[in-house]
Amino acid sequence: MRSDSIVFAIAGMCFGIILGWVIGTEQAAKRTAAVLQPAAAAPPQAAGTRQPPALDQGQVQALTTVLKSDPNNAGALVKLANLYFDAERYQDAIDWYLKGLKIEPKNVDASTDLGVSYYYSGNTDAALKQFDYSLKLDPKHTKTLLNQGIVLAFGKRDLKGATDAWEKVVQIAPDSPEAQAAKQGLQGIAAAAGRGGAPAAPAGG
Fold first, then answer.
1. For residue 111, what is the domain's CATH number?
2. Does residue 22 form part of some domain?
């Protein structure tokens, strides 16, 4: 069985549990770092004719007004990035996350959302680099670890790396929703290995 087929087998097993997760983050005060849909190895814009969510122009205008008088308002910059993220306008989201993080570099949620935006823009390496930065800020940030595993598995086909990341999620917060998703990924890797795969080796190796 080819290594790329192993990954797609895992995608089939993991997709059902994580498909229900919101691609974006929760808005405003309820917002936490985004969680990727693992089966979306390509940016969601390529998925077909589905229309992305509409950009909330009213909130964009309100935040833009705030930034005109207070251009270093990190909270407003990140909220604006969140709006573009939720509208699946990922390059715009990247630009605003970068501006927010320049002012508030220790915002781990914004950092992880930036990583997710990079991934959905087709830049897997930048996503992983950003997740590494998030984990320097908070080594136990479970959403970052979950996303890191997803990108390693579905973006790099590095099943050993994905296993390591997901096992950390389960160890840190065994009862969390992130751990439940990580367990599904681990079960998918184990099932693929049982069918003759070799999940310990990255596909490109």
1. 1.25.40.10
2. yes
User: Does residue 129 contact residue 99 with C-beta atoms inside 8 Å?
Assistant: no
Q: Which are the contacts of 35, defined by CB distance < 8 A and separation ≥ 6?
A: 18, 21, 22, 23, 116, 143, 146, 147, 178, 181
Number of domains in the chain: 1
On whether residue 40 sits in a domain, the answer given is: no
Instruction: Calculate what percentage of the chain has a pLDDT beyond 90.
Output: 52
pLDDT at residue 176 is higher than 70: yes
Q: Which residue has the tokens 């833009």?
A: 64
